[in-house]
């Protein structure tokens, strides 16, 4: 640079020059080679520096003056032609020491050759400014002169971007010691600092008047990312030490950190280790059992879930809703709802039986079940209930008369609470539990409709389900968006604790996918005596840094442990990141679908075995679907919960009943036979209850008969056609009837005995 002595002739600068100076703020004129070559000259001429530079105060005076003040040290007699340069090694983030006054400097704009003289950056004697890495003055506590301790703030090479370097502090003391002042490492060193650490220390101004120059490097408590070995702005000698792995006794331990084990900003990531000794052992204090007497038949198991309390609630609310619907203003006078008859519990059970039977026999429309067409003729539906009555009950089906604007699930809340409370009352599950989402298909407009691309029903109402590995649903929660009690920040953790609130502190083991799992949740569950295992997302908070960057061969596993939590990474066809608080890094053999033996981590093997409870339950519901299109979303949820109750009854029956196990189809048919008994058997039982007698018909009529010229009037009995002979396509008139039978049909003596035997 060509710098001229004296003040600038012009006080104004153009905007383009200002922008050019600002863009050069953090650029350097010298390479690392130039810095290290000139540093050797500085070290050899320290005695000459003492005669030319004066005291420490004079050094800082030249660096901390205002823009209009020259910043060139006095001429040096022996090496006046060689300019001095200063290079700085980045240190850890400093912490301000209250005992020392500091002056911080950041890199200043780099003036061009033409603008240097205009800005007056030169000495009064006309000598040129020394070319060096420039520092922009930034006064925190004001300019400090004649202090025993002064600090420089230097750019940070550890930061991720060279253009956004964080400042570091260099502190100069007069006690003749070089040390790292931090809570992590604070070690005294020898006074011959330049000779001992010439390859590791920055070119900092040394007090020429002191026989024992000293430097104190302050490191803050803040943790910064590790220095990457690929950076271009790192000293070659430093990188040689890092790559070689050799250690200098007086340097801090974290100086040699590699990128894989570099500390993170999260507190949990700094102390992960491969030692599994922190894993905890919990005992399962419960026992899988049925808290009520075991059912003796499938219908009794079904009535464990659908009890009289729930039926009475539905009957009461449905009748009340039918009155409200009938009294609406837009209902016509000749509408069917006007002739509503109160629903009874027996009729409701028949309605539920017909509803479940629509899943056994699939037809596109509900009205097709009552058609008399030869392609649709299914007489069983018409024998139990008329089509109009069935559709009318379905229209008025209701569960609560209470309205609430805050609770979006108010219309189905009583049935949900009854299901969850019933399972808590009658059943105590085993150790292994699974937690996952389930979807109820809904394509209509709904405020809390969700989309999950991996589900069979992508659009619909989302359920969070806690289940056993065999598909028994223990508890479920409907996601109702913003107004839900579990909504907001930490939603996934809130859902887990909401579903497990009755199962904590018992030693259960919950298997979850990566939507829920995190280090923080695992620690909280472990504090409540509950294990958790499942897959883990790589961007979760508090994940160890090394586990995300490690490279593995196929079949290899990497495990880290902290506070009883195991985070592992295993590679099969792709990388699998998992977390567990019970299983360690043990590998075990398992058989794949094709019959081959594969070695996998124990946590992944158990996860595959116990995680599929919710999916199994969805699979069983899909075999005999009962859902129909409707304009009321809560009715679709009611049908879904009715099917869940039936599958739960199947699992409880097969687990605790002394009878033989049944599959789902046979179990359903046993229940339907109880809900929809054979009409012929019903009539036969009713016939046997009343004593039937064959009596002569009492109804008579007068008949006029003319014989020749004589007219006679006779009284005759009005005969009836025999019911038994008519069924055999015979026309027989009889004078006898059975008044105990419905309609008082006529019978001949033979048919009467056959019908009433």
UniProtKB/TrEMBL annotation:
Residues 47-57 have a biased composition (Low complexity). It comes from the Eukaryota. Residues 297-649 form the PiggyBac transposable element-derived protein domain. InterPro entries: PGBD. Coiled coil: none annotated. Residues 1-170, 258-278 are annotated as: Disordered. Signal peptide: none annotated. Residues 25-35 have a biased composition (Acidic residues). Residues 67-103, 144-164 have a biased composition (Polar residues). This is PiggyBac transposable element-derived protein 4-like.
């Amino acid at each position: 640079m060509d710098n001229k002595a004296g003040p600038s002739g012009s006080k104004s600068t153009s905007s383009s020059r200002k922008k050019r100076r600002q863009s050069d703020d953090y650029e350097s004129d010298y390479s690392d080679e130039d810095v290290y070559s000139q540093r050797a000259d500085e070290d050899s001429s320290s005695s000459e520096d003492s005669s030319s530079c004066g005291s420490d105060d004079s050094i800082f005076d030249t660096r901390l003056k205002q823009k209009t003040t020259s910043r060139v040290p006095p001429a040096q007699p022996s090496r006046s032609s060689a300019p001095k340069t200063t290079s700085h090694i980045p240190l850890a983030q400093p912490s301000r020491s209250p005992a020392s006054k500091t002056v911080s400097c950041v890199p200043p704009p780099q003036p061009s050759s033409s603008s240097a003289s205009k800005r007056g950056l030169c000495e009064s004697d006309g000598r040129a400014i020394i070319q060096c890495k420039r520092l922009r003055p930034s006064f925190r506590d004001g300019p400090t002169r004649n202090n025993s301790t002064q600090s420089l703030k230097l750019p940070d090479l550890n930061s991720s971007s060279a253009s956004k370097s964080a400042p570091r502090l260099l502190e100069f003391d007069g006690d003749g010691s070089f040390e790292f002042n931090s809570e992590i490492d604070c070690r005294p060193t020898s006074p011959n600092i330049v000779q001992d650490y010439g390859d590791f220390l920055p070119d900092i101004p040394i007090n020429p008047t002191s026989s024992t120059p000293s430097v104190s490097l302050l490191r803050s408590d803040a943790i910064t990312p590790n220095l990457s070995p690929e950076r271009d702005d790192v000293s070659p000698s430093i990188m040689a030490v890092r790559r070689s792995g050799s250690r200098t006794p007086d340097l801090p331990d974290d100086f040699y950190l590699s990128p894989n084990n570099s500390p993170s900003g999260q507190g949990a990531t700094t102390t992960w280790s491969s030692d599994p000794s922190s894993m905890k052992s919990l005992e399962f204090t419960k026992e899988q059992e049925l808290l009520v007497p075991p059912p003796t038949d499938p219908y009794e198991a079904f009535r464990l879930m659908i009890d009289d309390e729930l039926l009475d609630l539905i009957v009461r609310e449905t009748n009340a809703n039918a009155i409200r619907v009938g009294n609406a203003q837009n209902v016509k006078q000749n509408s069917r709802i006007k002739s509503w008859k109160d629903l009874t519990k027996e009729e409701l059970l028949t309605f539920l039986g017909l509803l479940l039977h629509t899943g056994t026999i699939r037809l596109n429309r509900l009205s097709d079940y009552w058609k008399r067409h030869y392609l649709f003729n299914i007489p069983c539906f018409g024998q139990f209930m008329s089509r109009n009555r069935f559709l009318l009950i379905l229209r008025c089906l209701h569960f609560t008369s209470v309205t609430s604007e805050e609770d979006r699930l108010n219309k189905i809340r009583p049935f949900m609470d009854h299901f969850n409370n019933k399972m808590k009352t009658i059943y105590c599950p085993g150790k292994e539990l699974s937690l996952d989402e389930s979807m109820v298909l809904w394509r209509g407009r709904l405020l809390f409709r969700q989309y999950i691309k991996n589900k069979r029903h992508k659009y619909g109402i989302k359920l969070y389900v806690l289940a056993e590995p065999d598909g028994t649903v223990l508890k479920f929660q409907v996601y109702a968006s913003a107004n839900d009690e579990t909504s907001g920040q930490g939603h996934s953790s809130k859902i887990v604790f909401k579903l497990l609130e009755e199962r904590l502190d018992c030693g259960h083991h919950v298997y979850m996918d990566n939507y829920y799992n995190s280090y923080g949740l695992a620690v909280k569950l472990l504090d409540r005596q509950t294990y958790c295992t499942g897959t883990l997302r790589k961007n979760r908070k508090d994940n160890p840094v090394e586990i995300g960057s490690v490279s593995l061969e196929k079949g290899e596993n990497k495990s880290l442990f902290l506070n009883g939590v195991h985070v592992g990474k295993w590679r099969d066809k792709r990388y699998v990141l998992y977390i567990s608080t019970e299983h360690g890094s043990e590998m075990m053999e398992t058989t794949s679908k094709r019959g081959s033996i594969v070695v996998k981590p124990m946590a992944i093997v158990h996860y595959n075995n116990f995680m599929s409870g919710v999916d199994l339950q969805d699979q069983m519901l899909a075999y005999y679907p009962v859902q129909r299109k409707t304009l009321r979303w809560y009715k679709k949820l009611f049908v879904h919960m009715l099917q869940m109750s039936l599958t739960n009854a199947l699992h409880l029956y097969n687990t605790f009943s002394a009878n033989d196990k049944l599959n789902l189809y046979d179990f359903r048919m046993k229940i339907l036979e109880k809900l929809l008994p054979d009409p012929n058997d019903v009539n036969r039982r009713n016939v046997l209850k009343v004593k039937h007698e064959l009596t002569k018909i009492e109804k008579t009529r007068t008949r006029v008969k003319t014989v020749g010229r004589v007219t006679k009037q006779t009284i005759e009995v009005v005969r009836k056609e025999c019911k038994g002979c008519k069924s055999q396509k015979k026309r027989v008139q009889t004078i006898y009837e059975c008044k105990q039978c419905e309609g008082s049909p006529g019978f001949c003596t033979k048919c009467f005995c056959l019908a009433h035997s």
